[in-house]
Design goal:
The chain is built from 21 helices and 14 strands. The chain has about 500 residues and is an alpha/beta fold. The chain folds into 3 domains: about 110 residues, 2-Layer Sandwich (Nucleotidyltransferase, domain 5); about 170 residues, 2-Layer Sandwich (Nucleotidyltransferase, domain 5), CATH 3.30.420.150; about 140 residues, Orthogonal Bundle (Hypothetical protein af1432). The N and C termini lie far apart (about 60 Å). The mean pLDDT is about 85.
Length: about 500
């Protein structure tokens, strides 16, 4: 396999960055250049909801320069992604069209979960070190300009991931007017951080032992390299000592001491204070800053798809673990959900020739099965709509916003009447219809909450899907409701599901 040159462009909240990578079968992924340009797009977005004309001009000029650099490297492929500064603008489509017309670059906007998942993949690519930290209990703290993402791991398993609007640029802008009026700016930063972190701590840290925090950001990672003399791991005690010294010096002197650009000085203190408050909330004793960025995650994903990189970590298992923990939070029926998941997977696998869907759709169906009853926690009467709202309001790292919407619609339409007109495009509508048809059949088989079913055998014969159930009790209830649940399968696929019980009981 030939060597390929790839460019990863990050249109961030406070800087533009591009990394050039070399991919080869022998060498894997290798960074060969890194270009950065300071531009605070987020300052406009978080204050006014739009990026100013002046900053759009600067943005396009820098991206044009990036394009020229790509040409000198004879880049074979590139990906350019924008994050919250563009995601939260009211005129994002217009901005992206301007960029494309003026620079020739296609910039896509990442949802928050997609952005964090790429960061997470970049950290996980560190292999054994990552596995060791999450095995001991760790929090991955992804610090951006607009928000932070905290993902908790316990015994190698992802417990939860939560997005908190405590980005360093947003924090600075929120307190900018107060800074000239007070000598206690650091205390205000701490109070602002603690107000949000206290809720996170109360809900998610009660019984969790966090040994280490893993930092993904643009400032603390660099500072730690200086503090640790090239080391990526320092103790919490060392970090607390540094923040104390930083507060004495002031951000400008500290920036000069660390060799950080003066224009970045105003973001140093919010970064340091935020990490210190997270250390206090989690009681972690170590900090690991692997020095990865979104550009690394973009490149990792490209290398993964092109088969230059082999997965060292089971990311799909993280998504499933997150769904299981979410089900626990909303007091889902563990045994029935496990059975529904198993039956739904069998139905999906045995009808591949009929539905033509792939691994990703299978994963979405599996998650829907695990979360099918989460809405009952809020309302037994309106469980379908409540389930939809819960899923749409909950970050699931590794799923895009569109994928999360598919899962939410599966949970909703499993109980509610199906609406072919409610989805954004015909392709997604068809996908949801197919998955809902399969999901309803699985739910019809597992209708009772007494978990009777032991084994299910499937056979496609002529225009029928014959489903034979081995159960330790009569399935009278399931048979009674099955026709109504299975009618959509026949409507979508033209095949009629037929439910029978293995003749080991008198029915």
């Amino acid at each position: 396999m030939a060597v390929k040159i790839f460019a990863a462009i990050d249109v961030g909240s406070y800087e533009l960055a591009m990394k050039i990578f070399e991919f080869s079968a022998k060498g894997g992924m290798k960074e060969i250049d890194h270009v950065r340009h300071r531009i605070e797009l987020g300052t406009d977005t978080y204050n006014t909801g739009k990026i100013s004309h002046e900053r759009v001009e600067e943005l396009c000029e820098v991206l044009q320069e990036f394009s020229q650099i790509m040409q000198t490297y004879h880049v074979d492929a590139y990906r350019a992604y924008a994050t919250s500064a563009v995601r939260e603008t009211v005129n994002a489509p217009v901005l992206l069209e301007q960029i494309k017309l003026r620079t020739g670059l296609k910039v896509e906007v990442l949802s928050n979960s997609e952005q964090r998942f790429m960061h997470y993949k970049a950290v996980a690519s560190r292999g054994e070190q990552f596995s060791r930290f999450i095995g001991e209990g760790a929090a991955v703290v992804d610090i951006g300009g607009g928000s932070i993402q905290i993902s908790l791991f316990d015994n190698d398993s992802l417990v939860t991931t939560q997005n908190i609007r405590l980005g360093i640029l947003r924090m600075r802008e929120m307190l900018m007017d107060l800074k000239p009026k007070t000598n206690h700016y650091e205390q205000l930063l701490e109070e602002l951080a603690d107000n949000q972190l206290s809720v996170f701590k109360r809900l998610y840290l009660k019984d969790k032992k966090i040994q280490s925090i893993i930092i993904v950001d643009d400032y603390i990672s660099y500072i730690m390299q200086k503090l640790g003399k090239g080391q990526q791991i320092i103790t919490a005690e060392q970090f607390h000592g540094f923040v104390d010294e930083m507060q004495k010096m002031g951000p400008e002197k500290c920036a000069a001491s660390l060799g950080v650009a003066q224009e970045s000085a105003s973001l140093l203190l919010p970064s340091a204070v935020l990490v210190r408050r997270i250390l206090k909330a989690t009681k972690a004793v170590n900090i690991w800053a692997p020095g990865v960025s979104l550009a690394d995650g973009i490149a990792y994903e490209y290398g993964e798809k092109e088969k230059y990189i082999r997965n060292r970590h089971d990311f799909e298992n993280d998504i499933i673990a997150c769904a299981i923990n979410m089900s626990k939070r909303y007091q889902g029926d563990r045994e029935r959900n496990r059975l529904l998941e198993e039956v739904a997977m069998q139905l999906f696998d045995h009808t591949k020739k009929i539905h033509g869907m792939g691994k990703r759709e299978r994963l979405l169906l599996r998650i829907a099965a695990l979360l099918n009853d989460c809405g009952r926690y809020v309302s037994l009467e309106a469980a379908a709509e409540c389930g939809y709202s819960i899923i749409m309001a909950t970050e699931m790292i590794g799923l895009s916003h569109a994928e999360r919407e598919i899962v939410a619609n599966l949970v909703r339409f499993n109980k509610a009447g199906f609406d072919y007109t409610a989805k954004p495009d015909p392709e997604t509508s068809l996908k949801i219809a197919k998955l809902t048809a399969i999901f309803r059949v699985a739910d019809g088989i597992c209708r009772s909450y007494r978990t009777k079913v032991k084994e299910v055998k499937l056979q496609v014969r002529d225009e029928e899907l014959l489903i034979t159930v081995d159960a330790d009790e009569k399935i009278t209830l399931e048979k009674g409701f099955f026709g109504r649940k299975a009618s959509m399968f026949e409507e979508v696929f033209g095949i009629r599901p037929v439910l029978k019980q293995k003749k080991n009981l008198q029915v």
